[in-house]
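Predict the assembly for these two chains.
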Amino acid sequence: MSGDIKSAGKKPALTVRMKKIQGKHVWPYIFVLPFFVIYLAFNFYPIIYSFVISLTEWSGFGESKFVGFANYVNIFTKDPYFLKSIGNTLIFMAFDIPIVIIGGILLAAILNSSLLKGSSFLRLATFSPYITIPVAIGVLFSLLFDWNSGMINKILVGVGAIDSGINFLGVPALMRVVIILMICWKYLGYHMIFFNAGILGIPTELYEAADVDGASGFTKFTRITIPMLRPIIEFLIIMNIIWGFQLFDEPKVLLSPWTSASGGAGTVGGSKRAALTAIWNLYDTTFGTQMQYGKGAAIAYGLFIFISVFSGVALLIINRNKRKGEI
Amino acid sequence: MQTRKKRLARALSLVLSLLMLLTVAAGCGSANEQDNNGTSTPATKAKTGNEQADGPVPITMWGWNAGEIEKIVDAYIKLTNANISLDYVTVQQMEAFQKLQTTINAGLDMPDIVPSEINQRGTMMSLDIWEDLSKEPFNFDESLTFDYFMPLCKNEKGELVCLPYDVSTAALAYKKEMAKQYLGTDDPEELQKMLPDWDTFKKVGLGVRDKSDGKIFMFASLTNVKQIIDGQNPAPIIKDNVLDMDSSVRKTVTRMVDFRDSGIVDNIIESSPAYNASYAERKHIFYPCASWSPNYVITPNDPDGVDAWGLMIPPEGCFSWGGSGFMIPRKALHKQEAFNLISWFLTEEGTKSQRETVRFNISNRQAYDDPEFAKLTEKSFGDQNLGQILFVEAMKNINVRPVSVHDVVITDTFNLVTEAINNDRTIGVDGALEMIETELRNKIPDLK
């Protein structure tokens, strides 16, 4: 009896809702449907399927074998390259994120100075490395820093600073410095553009009021410009963490034998794997020397965990500082 | 009237939305129309039948030298009246395996001919997707080509799944002027007598180093040492999943470390611009030289070096370096036509035609019985008959390491260790061997 009352009470409401959907409300759903179909087919499905693959042992050929979480246990406890590649990536990020953020702000501030002539040209010149393709950048830096014929070594030997060439791309520490330099050179202008837009959006009244109060240029920069750029800084830090974990093209091209006469493959991750980034390791495990789809998918999920944790921690720190600032 | 217009607009919107969805869904359809055994479905058969009725059979071939292969196929069609056309897909050497992997996983049509470079061949051949070309209906006659190719073309079951292409024998090229200045002669036979083994080679190298105040080197790169000494050693590194370093890599690594410490090898990375430039410089005497090197490496890198180079048998004999092969997937659509083409490459007619058309040295054995054909000259080497060493002397005792399923990992490991020995002078033989073992065991967990 009570059931009947319940269903009798629900039915009209459901019919009304269905009618609403069938009526004019159906059109928005139809129009957004293509996006969701594409998302489900090309994003959601591969994400789920990758997880399924990560639970298998599969070379990409033939039948796969279900191994449960063995691939996850392997990458976190046995495989020396997963954590090493994460470590390498964190080293690159630890240096390049502060450099591009601080450098970008300083560059934007300098290029917005009324004292500087030709700022438009300088802005374009600083931004142009960003639109250069990674392959060209890798080749350019490999030509600059080659042990035997690199321009940098030739200059250093020429001016008498060193007797023989420095093995920039063979000594792990130097190789990392070159990669950090390459990333900063490419992305500094890109960050400058963000900060430039932010600076242009700061109301001039704030600076005028500070002038009236007798504030110095440095005080205006630290007390007005930096706080007003805070949302952009926060956004770029989070994005840099995500981009940092995706680092692959530039170090791979830098350390690949693009002129090999014998078609040599080069060394994955450079000398002693010191430049093996997280994505390079993922690529090599899945499609390169190992061809292990299951382990590669597990690396992808492991990487996802690292990106989530680091982005989450960064967000927490930013929000905590924000709350402190509001108090 | 208003309602009708509204309905029309709704119907039109619905049709457009459905069309958009259909466009997306169309991309998800499988292009694979074959069953698991690789036999053609009726649809495929009908397609093939139509192609044969309407025109030439399109052979899909992967590779990295479109220009030359197109000329060769033109010659093939002209000489044999074969009713085929070539659909050539450019795939970089190092990407052939990945492309194969993604093609299979995406369920796309397999090509009819897949190229295989020596560094990847063992791993590629281990896949159970290739036709055994020694069996029906192909019945390839192994005697058409040189015996040394067989360990490089048969998989672990002994099936002939790859047909060899170009001759891969290699010797030692040297700069004549430097040899005369530092070794006292530029005659190949005298140099061979002077350098019968690697111990003597080192002693002579030390003399050159002292005479030149350490400015002249026997080799430009440690990779050269690895290439030759490892190439001379037929002992498998991994056999039946057992790692055997003592009879395989130990000798190579020992020589590499010894030559580095003796200062007779320069530190240039083989793949660097400096290495290519070194061919034209007068700083390094010897280079490994395969049958493809004079035409494709030495002359382009030393264009002014006319009659500046000589070729000799290396200490302890010739070796195999590089060389291509071709394989036919079981699921290929035009297997017989593909086989006809790649087996024609290895006929006397095909081999001679390719020398004439593109200057390739293909591997039909009978063709080289003709002394005139076995003669190979190159302007960098003056009038020296390079073929006498590469096609005659080398064939007498060349011994190659059979390809292995782990070749891709082994190649990467050797690259890593070679680079480490080159970059870090503190790494000795034991350190290098430990590095090889650690790397191999990490990447091949079930290794014994």
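Chain A is about 70% helix and 0% strand. Chain A touches chain B through 46 residues (CB under 8 Å).
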